[in-house]
């Protein structure tokens, strides 16, 4: 039977940006996307999308099902090829990097894929060590020590190290996947629907964990999500995707005041009414 996660410190819901507000100012942006167009066959998913992610912030990226939220993440990561546009990560134009330069940049980000995407034939410890084996040259002893640190960092008990993914609960799978994403001590963290499949208590605990780690490690977080609770509790800003572009962006209050049709429907629907006073 899977072990219950060890408790993690709670964080105040009051948050503040740690970056400058000047659009495009060199050094202030973790991600800068301009005119990004992505399609499959005759279908255009992203159509001239512009987006900034500021260093040190948690950006929630929302949109309807199938509108391209995960597509943008995978395009930034280089897993999907864009048709047009420019993407910069830490002021580096991804189109101009050599293979070695791109690999060096990859060490500066970590990714938590939807559903965790753990390797079923590897133990928890071995899953966390995958990025270390790929990018670093460390002894087995040191990798074991570092992986154990990551296990504790995400609030799991140390006896989880030898378990296989099939022995883990949904919440534990998410935490192991997060530990793997943090294996190389990244500056930028991509989260794809991190609370999907979790019960409300588990989702709230995971939000608290992300917020605590973001504050402690000084991370920039790009989070694809549909979870209203996450948007309210841990996001500094929100960007909404509609029609292949960022249709609206800003703080939660600015999103509540937006007149963009999809944004208004999302933030003032029945599920949102309990959180914004029924507005």
Tell me what you see in this structure:
This protein is an alpha/beta fold and 279 residues long. It has one domain (29-273): Rossmann fold (3-Layer(aba) Sandwich). Helices cover 34% and strands 23% of the residues. The chain contains 10 helices and 10 strands. Helix 3 packs parallel to helix 5, helix 4 (140-153) packs across helix 5 and helix 6 (200-217) runs parallel beside helix 7 (228-234). The radius of gyration is 19 Å and the shape is globular.
Task: Explain the layout of strands and helices.
Blueprint: E1 29-40, E2 43-54, E3 58-63, H1 69-76, E4 84-89, E5 92-93, H2 99-106, E6 109-112, H3 124-135, H4 140-153, H5 170-181, E7 188-192, H6 200-217, E8 220-224, H7 228-234, E9 237-242, E10 245-250, H8 252-257, H9 261-267, H10 270-273
Parallel strand pairs: 3-8, 3-9, 6-7, 7-8
Antiparallel strand pairs: 1-2, 1-4, 4-5, 9-10
Helix pairs in contact: 3-4, 3-5, 4-5, 6-7
């Amino acid at each position: 039977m899977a072990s219950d996660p060890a408790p993690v410190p709670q964080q105040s819901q009051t948050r503040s940006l740690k970056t400058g507000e000047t659009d495009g100012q060199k050094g202030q942006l973790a991600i800068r996307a301009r005119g990004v167009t992505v399609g499959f066959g005759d279908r255009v998913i992203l159509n001239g999308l512009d987006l900034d992610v500021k260093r040190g912030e948690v950006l929630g990226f929302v949109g309807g099902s199938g509108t391209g939220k995960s597509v943008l993440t995978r395009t930034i990561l280089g897993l999907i090829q864009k048709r047009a546009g420019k993407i910069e990560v830490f002021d580096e134009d991804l189109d101009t990097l050599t293979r070695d330069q791109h690999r060096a940049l990859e060490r500066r980000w970590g990714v938590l894929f939807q559903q965790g995407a753990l390797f079923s034939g590897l133990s928890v410890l071995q899953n966390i060590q995958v990025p270390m084996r790929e990018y670093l040259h460390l002894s087995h002893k040191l990798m074991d020590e570092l992986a154990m640190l990551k296990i504790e960092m995400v609030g799991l008990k140390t006896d989880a190290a030898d378990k296989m993914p099939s022995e883990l609960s949904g919440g534990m799978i998410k935490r192991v996947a997060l530990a793997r994403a943090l294996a190389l001590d990244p500056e930028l963290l991509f989260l794809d629907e991190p609370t999907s499949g979790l019960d409300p208590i588990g989702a709230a605990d995971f939000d608290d964990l992300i917020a605590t780690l973001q504050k402690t490690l000084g991370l920039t977080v790009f989070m694809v999500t549909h979870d209203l609770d996450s948007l309210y509790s841990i996001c500094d800003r929100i960007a909404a995707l509609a029609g292949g572009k960022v249709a609206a962006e800003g703080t939660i209050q600015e999103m509540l005041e937006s007149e963009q049709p999809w944004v208004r429907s999302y933030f003032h629907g029945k599920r949102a009414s309990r959180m914004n006073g029924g507005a």
